[in-house]
């Protein structure tokens, strides 16, 4: 089963575009120096199944309306394809009735969750810095031979350059919101030690020293806490939102 959906916002078009880029080009120095957000988005794009069993809506169809904001099929479709690829990469058959329903439910939950978070962020005054947006766009363009190649990759996803820029802008809004509005408890030393002990006891091989693993364990536990806090905020926002699913 797909790991419970996350609301760590990554532009959907960005993942697909970089995936298309990686299919056709060798990694460049610019790709290696990409921002953490770009690396994260690129990492979410698995090799798509040869034949998709998904019944996807038209790109310009309205699949949901969240507080009056329409969500287009192209946004939902890109998330659904990523979930489909994730299942395939885990050795599961995405075409089973159960998994097709799972993909549909999870993809819709993610796009609605991101929508309510971004709406709340904008209502609270979070904005994207134009200079940073331009910097992120240049980092993205550096993954391609030229702008024409990038436009071609974008066209395959159904997104335009302007829509790509808007998604990058929304990511910056999201990052600001997460930093200032989502309050999650700090991981304690006791929690880190307990997680290490559990790992060491369950490992078939001798575990690395605690000092070696401590930073990684602490980061992982903190990310879990951040996710839990985000889930809680999403549930609050969804309960207060007017949501109409049209799919």
Question: What tags apply to this protein structure?
Answer:
globular, 10 helices, mainly alpha, 247 residues, three-stranded antiparallel beta sheet
Task: Please characterize this protein's 3D structure.
There is one protein chain. By secondary structure, this protein is mainly alpha-helical. 64% of the residues lie in helices and 5% in strands. The chain has 10 helices and 3 strands; from the N terminus they run αααββαααααααβ. It has a 3-stranded antiparallel β-sheet. A hairpin with a 2-residue loop joins β1 and β2. α1 crosses α7 and α9 crosses α10. The longest helix has 31 residues. The protein is globular.
Task: Give the structure's gist in a few sentences.
The protein is mainly alpha-helical and 247 residues long. The protein has ten helices and three strands.
